[in-house]
């Protein structure tokens, strides 16, 4: 089902015209209302009326997470506090949290964005949607909550944690849609299997997001739950979830282009990459009132996939996030994304889908250790088989990563499980 066909199947020319008009409006708006942007635009000698085509977006300054920190908490807001109806913040794992605000109109736009993506991902108003994201300042839970409500689904705001109870209620309530991080959904599947509850569960769709995951992880989730797993993408600075999301064709995430103008740039130089190439996603929200931004550097690595989709939508898609510019590990000069390691591990025979990556330095040499769980604890007693499996994983990692990783096999159910965003990499260098 297409939630807003008039937008989601709009002709390309018409969409570009709409984007240009909204971009011009946004530049005027921030120039008048946000001191940081007035200063930056003045310094670049760019006036709002200089934006005459979508390509002129390149003349605009970038915005970064540091700008949020320097203006903590409300310095980038474009409306007085009386017009703010909601405040959220990012987790702040890498420093001061970034604080974001919404007007009533922003909240409604956000819900529309998410409703479109939930519909694209296979949810309908008939569904009972269990939201197993942690409720709180994190935008994920309330974002999906309002979006699914707008779609007309029955929302179960269970939040994350207390996993056995989650599974029990999932069966009792007849939940048909699960909203969670992929890593938590995987853990929940494990618990459901252990409780012997899988055949009492009626889940049919997983709407996953908030963290990266591979196609292999998607396949694993689909197999274990017996669902169609789609994912959606966003970040608190831009709105929360709602920027883009898979349709059930699973061929890239459709961007809500009438609300977000997306570019892909070379993360090192900030220059746009040729169409269709990989780089850092840069997003300019086009309709935000409380917290408008110009060219936000997401740090997420993707590429844009233009062209119509089998689902009927005409909006540009973005490929599954390959990683973040700041989670790329440089191991002895070689660039390694955790997602590449996940791609190798998941689905390999003899090991479970959970893993941990530890990076250390021995003298001048970087060392990378990959810990994975055995499926069968009995193997720990057979040195020969253990050795052979370890070698097999090592060799596959070597083919994909071009580096020698130390592989450690551990007992089943011993690695950490996650109820929200997974943290799988420990860099001790
Ligand atoms: P933070 O994690 O910085 O506290 P957010 O909760 O807003 O803030 O998280 C936004 C980030 O989460 C994105 O920049 C991206 O790296 C990641 N993310 C969200 N959805 C996805 C997705 N579907 N695939 C990959 N990464 C995602
Ligand atoms: Zn599609």
Summarize the structure.
This protein has helices at residues 5-8, 12-33, 35-43, 65-70, 104-120, 139-151, 163-173, 182-194, 215-225, 338-345, 383-401, and strands at 86-89, 99-102, 128-131, 154-156, 177-180, 205-209, 228-235, 240-246, 253-255, 260-265, 279-285, 296-302, 304-305, 317-318, 323-324, 329-331, 334-336, 351-362, 365-374, 406-410, 425-427. It has 429 residues and is of the alpha/beta class. The structure holds adenosine-5'-diphosphate and zinc ion (ZN).
Structure report:
There is one protein chain. The protein is of the alpha/beta class and 429 residues long. It folds into 2 domains: 1-324, ANL, N-terminal domain (Rossmann fold, 3-Layer(aba) Sandwich), CATH 3.40.50.12780; 329-427, 2-Layer Sandwich (GMP Synthetase, Chain A, domain 3), CATH 3.30.300. The chain is 31% helix and 24% strand. The protein has a 9-stranded mixed beta sheet with strand order 4-3-5-6-7-8-9-14-13. Strands 10-11-12-15 form a 4-stranded antiparallel beta sheet. The longest helix has 22 residues, at 12-33. It is globular and about 75 Å long. The model has no long low-confidence stretch (mean pLDDT 96). It binds adenosine-5'-diphosphate (ADP) and zinc ion. Zinc ion is lined by residues 247, 249, 254, 309, 311, 313.
Helix-strand blueprint:
Layout: H1 5-8, H2 12-33, H3 35-43, H4 65-70, E1 86-89, E2 99-102, H5 104-120, E3 128-131, H6 139-151, E4 154-156, H7 163-173, E5 177-180, H8 182-194, E6 205-209, H9 215-225, E7 228-235, E8 240-246, E9 253-255, E10 260-265, E11 279-285, E12 296-302, E13 304-305, E14 317-318, E15 323-324, E16 329-331, E17 334-336, H10 338-345, E18 351-362, E19 365-374, H11 383-401, E20 406-410, E21 425-427
Parallel strand pairs: 3-4, 3-5, 5-6, 6-7, 18-21, 19-20
Antiparallel strand pairs: 1-2, 7-8, 8-9, 9-14, 10-11, 11-12, 12-15, 13-14, 16-17, 18-19
């Amino acid at each position: 089902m297409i939630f807003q066909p008039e937008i989601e199947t709009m002709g390309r020319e018409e969409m570009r015209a709409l984007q240009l008009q909204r971009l011009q409006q946004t530049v005027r708006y921030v120039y008048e209302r946000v001191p940081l942007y007035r200063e930056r635009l003045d310094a670049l000698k760019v006036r709002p009326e200089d934006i005459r085509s979508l390509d002129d977006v390149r003349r605009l300054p970038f915005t970064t997470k540091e700008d949020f920190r320097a203006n903590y908490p409300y310095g980038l807001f474009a409306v007085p506090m009386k017009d703010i109806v909601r405040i959220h913040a990012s987790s702040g794992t890498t420093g001061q949290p970034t604080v974001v605000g919404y007007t009533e109109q922003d909240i409604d736009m956000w819900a529309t964005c998410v409703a479109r993506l939930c519909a694209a991902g296979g949810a309908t108003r008939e569904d009972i949607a269990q939201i197993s994201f942690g409720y709180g300042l994190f935008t994920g839970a309330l974002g999906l909550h309002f979006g699914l409500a707008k779609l007309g689904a029955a929302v179960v705001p269970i939040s994350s944690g207390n996993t056995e109870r989650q599974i029990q209620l999932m069966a009792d309530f007849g939940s048909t849609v699960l909203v969670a991080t992929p890593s938590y959904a995987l853990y929940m599947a494990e618990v459901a299997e252990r409780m012997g509850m899988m055949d009492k569960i009626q889940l049919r769709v997983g709407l996953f997001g908030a963290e990266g995951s591979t196609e292999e992880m998607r396949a694993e989730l689909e197999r274990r739950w017996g669902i169609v797993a789609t994912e959606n993408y966003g970040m608190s600075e831009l709105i929360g979830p709602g920027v883009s999301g898979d349709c059930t064709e699973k061929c890239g995430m459709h961007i809500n282009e009438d609300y977000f103008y997306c570019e892909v740039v070379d993360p090192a130089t900030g220059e746009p990459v040729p169409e269709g190439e990989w780089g850092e996603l840069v997003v300019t929200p086009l309709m935000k009132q409380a917290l408008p931004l110009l060219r936000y550097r997401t740090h997420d690595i993707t590429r844009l996939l233009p062209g119509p989709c089998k689902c009927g939508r005409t909006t540009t898609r973005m490929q599954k996030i390959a990683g973040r510019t700041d989670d790329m590990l440089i191991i002895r000069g070689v660039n390694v994304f955790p997602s590449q390691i996940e791609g190798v591990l998941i689905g390999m025979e003899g090991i479970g889908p959970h893993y941990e990556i530890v990076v250390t330095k021995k003298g001048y040499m970087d060392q990378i250790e990959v810990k994975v769980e055995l499926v069968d604890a009995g193997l720990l007693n057979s040195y020969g088989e253990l050795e052979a499996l370890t070698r097999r994983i090592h060799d596959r990692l070597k083919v994909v990563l071009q580096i020698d990783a130390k592989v450690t096999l551990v007992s089943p159910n011993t690695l950490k499980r996650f109820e929200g965003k997974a943290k799988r990499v420990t860099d001790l260098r």
